From TrEMBL:
InterPro entries: CRA_dom, CTLH/CRA, CTLH_C, Fyv10_fam, Rmd5_dRing, ZF_RING_GID, Znf-RING_euk, Znf_RING. The keyword Ribosomal protein does not apply. It is found in: Cytoplasm. This is Protein RMD5-A-like protein. One of its GO terms (molecular function) is zinc ion binding. Residues 328-371 form the RING-type domain. It comes from the Eukaryota. Keywords: Cytoplasm, Metal-binding, Zinc, Zinc-finger. The keyword Cell division does not apply. SMART domains: CRA (SM00757), CTLH (SM00668), RING (SM00184). Residues 149-206 form the CTLH domain.
Length: 385
């Protein structure tokens, strides 16, 4: 509902801005037209015996400009726009509280580690000058260890953008054993891309020779993939209309680039997603809930920072879930070793403490809160994620 109100207010501002711009152009065009007419009268051919009365022309121009009243018109349309802009700014401030410090929890950070995280973030993104600046200002030269590894990664990525796979293949050959242990098929993907490039831009014989040299070793493990690649030979020059047209898609290059980044970071013991970026994105997702909580608690004159557990769940997307968790639908508490999830005979799951409260006794049966079935504590079994 709040977002709809903000959108309506924004639409009104846009409408007023367009109207103000249109009016301003009309006024400027009117003024320009009157001035052009006056200049044309002054410069028009005339009888030498009766010279042009420039004063009267300029006087008439002044009279016409006063009738148009450009300043009043421009000020009027701008005033209407400013009123709507002012209302919109107040609505944004009311709807989206800009004071995010209310959601801040005072936590002691190791500034040395934080500086390293920031520097590594810049290196991982390819912003090496910024990373060097952070290191120099913070005095953490050991943080530059990853710089040269990430520099190699970005050299590979830049080469792939121009369809040059040589740096990527050299890195794959040098780390073949580790990639195999990771179960990665990156080498096949890169050779497949190179094969398709040769097939589309080179000769059929060159493509066939490349396949015999670099794709044949994968024939037993990836039979279906190799067969599709070989099928492309029969449609050389008309792949766009062949059953294998999908193999020409640029998305294969994009996915292979992402796989290079993922495997490169994995071998470095780093996440392919910057920890700093993930933390900021997660904070952005949870910020509205925390701000609402802070406002509610402030109205009740309570300090939410003193709570051991938040009274409301902070919902984050699946991209921020890195391990399996279970939150009891009754108590709204996350399971733990002391309070594990328990499966009831009806196949509903609650935490152990909730089951004990419902049963009131280990021997009494109790009704499931989500269906008519009854169960006893003895019938419930702990489950593991």
């Amino acid at each position: 509902m709040e977002l709809n109100t903000v959108k309506d207010a924004f639409d009104r501002v846009v409408k007023k801005q367009k109207l103000s711009s249109s009016r301003s152009h009309e006024v400027i065009d009117q003024v320009g037209h009157e001035i052009e007419q006056a200049i044309a009268q002054i410069l028009s051919p005339h009888d030498p015996t009766s010279p042009v009365d420039q004063k009267s022309i300029l006087s008439e121009l002044k009279h016409r400009l006063n009738a148009i009243a450009p300043l009043q018109q421009l000020e009027g349309s701008q005033k209407e726009l400013n009123v709507n802009l002012s209302k919109y700014a107040k609505l944004l401030e009311k709807t989206f509280n800009p004071d995010v410090s209310k959601a801040y929890s005072n936590v002691d950070f190791d500034h040395h580690i934080v500086n390293k995280i920031i520097a590594n973030h810049f290196y991982q993104q390819g912003w090496f000058d910024l990373g060097d600046s952070i290191i120099n200002e913070a005095g953490v030269p050991e943080a530059a260890i990853l710089k040269y590894q990430f520099l190699e990664m970005h050299q590979i990525i830049e080469a792939m953008k121009v369809r040059n796979l040589e740096p990527a293949l050299r890195w794959v050959y040098a780390n073949r054993e580790k990639l195999t242990q990771n179960g990665s098929d990156l080498e096949l993907k890169l050779h497949s891309l190179q094969y398709m490039e040769i097939l589309q831009n080179g000769s059929q014989s060159d493509a066939l020779n490349y396949a015999k040299t670099y794709l044949a070793p994968f024939a037993f493990l990836y039979k279906d993939d190799i067969m599709k690649l070989m099928g492309c030979l029969a449609f050389r020059g008309r792949l766009a209309n062949s059953p294998y047209s999908e193999l020409r898609s640029p998305t294969h290059w994009e996915k292979s680039t992402e796989e290079v980044i993922h495997q490169f970071c994995s071998l470095l013991g780093q996440s392919s997603n910057s920890p700093l970026g993930v933390a900021i994105a997660a904070g952005f997702e949870g910020l509205p809930t925390l701000l609402k909580l802070a406002n509610v608690m402030a109205a009740k004159k309570q300090d939410w920072h003193a709570m051991r557990q938040l009274p409301v769940p902070v919902e984050l997307g699946k991209e921020f879930q890195f391990h399996s968790t279970f939150v009891c639908p009754v108590s709204r508490e996350q399971s733990s070793d002391e309070n594990p999830p328990m499966l009831m005979p009806c196949l509903h799951v609650l935490c152990k403490q909730s089951i004990m409260k419902l049963s009131k006794s280990s021997t009494r049966t109790f009704k499931c809160p989500y269906c008519p079935a009854e169960a006893s504590v003895a019938q419930c079994r702990q489950i593991y994620f």
